[in-house]
UniProtKB/TrEMBL annotation:
It comes from the Bacteria. This is PepSY domain-containing protein. Keywords: Membrane, Transmembrane, Transmembrane helix. InterPro entries: PepSY-ass_TM. The keyword Transmembrane helix applies. The chain crosses the membrane at residues 20-44, 157-179.
């Protein structure tokens, strides 16, 4: 293959990469925008001044032997939810986050993203609030559609695989769009 033929072949490959890169960018622009904005918000959630994620409070003791039973704390959190927020809210828990180093237990509810922090020893309410970061996380990973449509994680799986492959292809084609012309110029010299 002559030098001229080699450059023509490289130029053809470069055009194909540019075409793939441009088409993916046009099709996936909205998804990349949502992922980048939600990722940025998740990155700063602990420094958002309680706007995205309530600050973890401090309880009276870290000695677990002085704590109330978890079942009692759970009932207290459910009562607080109904008395302080709304009696109509669902009480199904997403998770219970025990922070013995802080002396507290966080009860995070599933359907409405409320979180209640209780002192592990006294059961005193330390904080009640929305966990907006959980909503943002569900948007970021696509699970918000699974939750809404009840598809059991399949949308999140497909979304994650497609977006990961797209990002990989963007990286490869973007690199080639940067590196390819350098190689072509180098070949001329």
């Amino acid at each position: 293959m002559t030098g001229n033929q080699k450059r023509k072949q490289q130029a053809k490959i470069l055009r194909q990469f540019r075409s793939v890169h441009r088409a993916m960018g046009a099709v996936l622009f909205v998804f990349f925008f949502v992922i980048s904005v939600s990722g940025l918000l998740l990155g700063v959630k602990k420094n958002s001044g309680d706007l995205l994620l309530p600050k973890t409070q401090k309880g009276t003791t870290t000695d677990l032997t002085q704590w109330l039973p978890l079942e009692e704390l759970k009932e207290k959190a459910i009562n607080v939810l109904h008395d302080s927020v709304s009696p109509d809210l669902e009480t199904k828990l997403d998770r219970i986050d025990v922070r013995n180093e802080k002396g507290i237990v966080k009860f995070i509810f599933d359907a409405h993203y409320y979180g209640i922090q209780l002192d592990g020893a006294t059961g005193e309410v330390l904080h009640i609030g929305k966990r907006r970061s959980d909503v943002i996380e569900n948007i970021h990973d696509g699970s918000i559609l699974d939750n809404y449509l009840g598809t059991g994680g399949y949308i999140k799986l497909v979304y994650t695989v497609v977006m990961s492959i797209a990002l990989l292809l963007f990286t490869i084609t973007g690199f080639w769009l940067w590196y390819g012309p350098k190689q072509m110029r180098k070949g001329r010299n």
